[in-house]
Amino acid sequence: MEATISWLTTLIPQLPVPTARLIVYVVYSAILAFAAPVVLVVAYTYMERKVLARLQDRIGPNRAGPLGILQGLADAVKMLTKEDITPAKADRIVFNLAPMLAVVAAVLVFAVLPVAPGVIGTDLKVGILYVVAIGGLGELAALMAGWSSNNKFALIGAFRTVAQLVSYEIPIVLAIITVVLASGSMQLGAIVAAQDVPFLFTLPVAFLIFFVASIAEIGRCPFDLLEAESEIVAGFHTEYSGMKFAMFFIGEYMHLFSAAGIATALFLGGWRGPGAGEASILGVLLGFVYFLAKTTLLVFVMMWVRGTLFRIRIDHLLDFGWKFLVPVALFLLVAVAFVLKVPVLNSPTFRWLGMLAANGVVILVSLALVVLAARHSRSAALRGVAGVDG
Q1: Global pTM?
Q2: Quick check: helix, strand or coil at residue 280?
Q3: Rounded Cα–Cα distance for residues 177 and 182 (Å)
Q4: Percent of the chain residues topping a pLDDT of 70
């Protein structure tokens, strides 16, 4: 933000630097709190509908505005005009706080997200710890909504919130710790600066673990057990209507962007790219374009996954998290820690190659164990069939 502050003081010479700094931070906070949610939700709603339509050989929105680009606005008008209903036996305070918390939890992540060179709300030295802590608020919002609704389907959705989201927080944290070890910092700005080679190429397994677990944490298909329509009506937000119902989806799309943004900062080099830097306004704008392009690419992949894969069972979901992702993440963490402590790998090039080799070993061992487990399961099933036939 220093480049923006310098530009503002150059534009208005009589403006003191502290005043310019205050103006920049107030405007930035206002954009994050009010403009960003609206723009992102409208844009990603349209994008997701078009992406899913193309994947499923459909047209998608094409009525509201040219090529259907006003569909998000039409949805907003529809939600604003719908009746707001609160169940008679619901806990009214908790019931009304839950949708607001869902949005606030997603917006707060942007406070430490470096979206361009020098453009960050506050570059906390424990920024990653802040992100993990704030991530728990989204889970709390779903839990509050399901419990306070006094509805059995919503309550089942709340139970699944505890089972699923808390479980998948563990591999996310382990993947983040791996990145923290590799970069030597919990400061997001420092992690971005440390990626002369993006961690996507040196820690691909950590990226996959983080990405898959993030999809589960957001609660999107194939991990959308929190709101499985075919099983529990709409899950934790069954009793919500009108704008309160819409706020959960605003929170979901904001969380979608923030999760992709964190993944961009941790593994894709954040805003880094040719010509990006704090030296000029153009460098800052280029950095923002790079960050937005990388983040949107990850969001597109999440939408692609949603349109391609089917919903899995809750027991399979938990088995995948506890019996596969957590052990692989722990194994990777130990392997990377070992590589970083080897004295021979002190130079950056050897360190990157060592981390990549550690990831390769983790992949090979994991695949071998999965094959052995599959053979054992198949043999057990065949023995069971033979026993029944006998």
Answers
A1: 0.84
A2: coil
A3: 9
A4: 86
